Amino acid sequence: MSAVAVRAVVAAARLGWGLALLAVRPVAFWGAVVLPLVYLPALYGVGAVGYRPLLLELLALHVASILLGHGHSPFWTRS
Fold it and tell me: What confidence score (pLDDT) does residue 50 get?
């Protein structure tokens, strides 16, 4: 593969990643905002053994939402 072809592939990958983040970032941001509300019902049932994996999955989903949605700025904060 020539250097020009490699650069074209890298540019296309960056464009694709940027478009994917553009679509996912707002959803991840608002998921990170709203997801802690789900913790209360999950914590209420934490005494049962069956709810522990659910709580760990919620925490992992929250961390992923925070990381993916970090760069989002809602429309009312833009100047």
Answer: 65
